[in-house]
Amino acid sequence: MKKVLVCGAGGFIGHHLVKRLKREGAWVRGVDLKFPRFSESEADDFVVGDLREQSLVRAVIDTRFDEVYQLAADMGGAGYIFTGEHDAEVMHNSATINLNVLEACRRRATQRIFYSSSACMYPAHNQTDPDDPRCDEESAYPAAPDSEYGWEKLFSERLYFAYARNHGMDVRVARYHNIFGPEGSWNDGREKAPAAICRKVAEAADGGTIEIWGDGKQTRSFLFIDECLEGTLRLMRSNVCEALNIGSEEMVSIDTLADMVSRVAGKTLGKRHVPGPVGVRGRTSDNRLIRKRLDWVPSASLEAGLRETYSWIERQVRANRRTSEQDFASPALAAS
């Protein structure tokens, strides 16, 4: 039986990855600051702990694992990453986790380790045209990410490849492009655009209006979680020792994304554009290299993923609304 460690197993991607690995028959240990928020983890062993603490990391990596997936990071959507308010935490927390995990794996002779980088590490100057951004893997240098989050991701990529060169570790690095799906953040300030828009649409009455940050013309591509997991496992089990994009090439504007979600919901909604953090003007995955290296690219449509995601978020909104109504209707406790 394959023995696997998933760091960040309480998070969105990590939680889904644990379920996928269990279906494959692996023995899985998960570790995170918290358990998954929306459903119970399927990990055989789940350690609640802080990967910034060396002692905790050494206790978790107490044996040689066949595969280690390092997904743990301090992250969120534009409302968390691009305000500048969390820069020091984001850089310190994520870099510390990566330093600790890599060194502990080296000490235990664990060779195969996957690191989830991000498309945020690509240069901002290549993403000023919303209709023609450049995000091929070779464009990463000269480096100029648009956020401290992106700079930390770029540093950590180099850290992993340095350990591969100097210590013979078998490192795999993926640059994720906006992963979304059920059981992700949707109302806690860390949600990304698909979840945020699904929430706004679910909360809006038919014929109403939702708010969109910026002018709505900024473009992105979004990858459904099942496709992300497929690409991750294919890369992990390949002989590819270079960073690869894992994302969709179906680029849409944020206004178009909102229209798609409204259509999925069966609602007619207006859009009100308001100031807010938006990041670069355009970004989409360039899949030429992953197609060449792995003979695979994501194939599911954005709308198909939005249908599943919207359905799940709509249920959360309804449940929260019922809870709020019950709390409002409950009589106040008499003062003693």
Describe the structure in your own words.
The model has no long low-confidence stretch (mean pLDDT 95). Strands 3-2-1-4-5-6-11 form a seven-stranded parallel beta sheet, with helices on both faces. The chain has helices at residues 12-23, 54-60, 78-81, 87-107, 148-167, 193-203, 225-236, 254-265, 288-294, 302-329, and strands at residues 3-7, 27-32, 45-48, 67-70, 112-118, 170-176, 179-180, 209-213, 219-220, 223-224, 244-246, 252-253, 270-274. The protein has 336 residues and is α/β, with parallel strands linked by helices. The chain contains ten helices and 13 strands. It has a domain at 3-177 and 224-246: NAD(P)-binding Rossmann-like Domain (Rossmann fold), CATH 3.40.50.720.
The number of distinct β-strands equals 13
Query: Which percent range describes the beta-strand content?
Result: 15-25%
Order of strands across the widest beta sheet?
Answer: 3-2-1-4-5-6-11
What overall form do the CA principal axes indicate? Answer: globular
Estimated radius of gyration: 20 Å
Helicity, as a percent range: 25-40%
CATH superfamily of the domain at 3-177 and 224-246: NAD(P)-binding Rossmann-like Domain
Distance between the termini: 60 Å
Number of helices: 10
Helix-strand string? EHEEHEHHEHEEHEEEHEEHEHH
